[in-house]
Write a structure and sequence with these properties.
With 229 residues, the protein is an alpha+beta fold. It has seven helices and ten strands. The chain has two domains: 138 residues, Nucleoside Triphosphate Pyrophosphohydrolase, CATH 3.90.79.10; 64 residues, Arc Repressor Mutant, subunit A, CATH 1.10.10.10. The strands form two sheets. Strands 1, 2, 3, 4, 5, 6 and 7 form a seven-stranded mixed sheet that branches. The chain has a three-stranded antiparallel sheet with strand order 8-10-9. A hairpin with a 4-residue loop joins β1 and β2. The longest helix is centred in the middle third of the chain and has 18 residues.
Length: 229
Amino acid sequence: MDLSSYKSNQKILVAVDCIIFGFDGTQLKALLIKRGFEPEKGKWSLMGGFVGKNENADEAAARVLAQLTGLDNIYMEQLYAFTDVDRDPAGRVISIAYFALINIEDYSEQLQHDHEAKWFPLSKIPPLIFDHKKMVAKARRLLRQKVADHPIGFELLPEKFTLPQLQSLYEAIYETPLDKRNFAKKILSLKVLNKLNEKEKESSRKGAFYYVFDSVKYDKLQQNGVRFI
């Protein structure tokens, strides 16, 4: 190929946008920020930024997530490339979207204040800039698909959790009530949870035992091709 073709073609900016999901115990939420510059300054937006000259898209997304959450080693997955020609009124920008899962309790109020960020229930997402609402909807659909086969939902919970808390999470993800007995029976039959000799007693007098997820047992389960949920 003639190298002159590189110079003659239009330069296109590449950005990353991050859909950050959290779970407050009853509702699945997305973390949004107030956009700090034009166009659409002051409106609700996903957290994002341009891919730097010396980084790939994954590294750019990890940088953006660390800036907003103060956390590293977050579960993050590339979602989709949004390439509509007129998606950004300021110029030709391709956005590679990522979705991430964090425990809301790990996110500090100070960072929330610094970035003018706020958690919104997915049922009450405000108007968003550009095509960000499409990104959130697509990320939610992928999350529903992924949690059926992979234990990524545990990223949204504290390290130790009760079965009612786990059931509430899946009910929030799928937006449907689940039968308590059948859910517990199915989950425990997979043998990927380790029961602790400790109870959560704030929700009821009797209390519910805490569990922790066992990734080693899950890896063996996956090798046998067993569906998670």
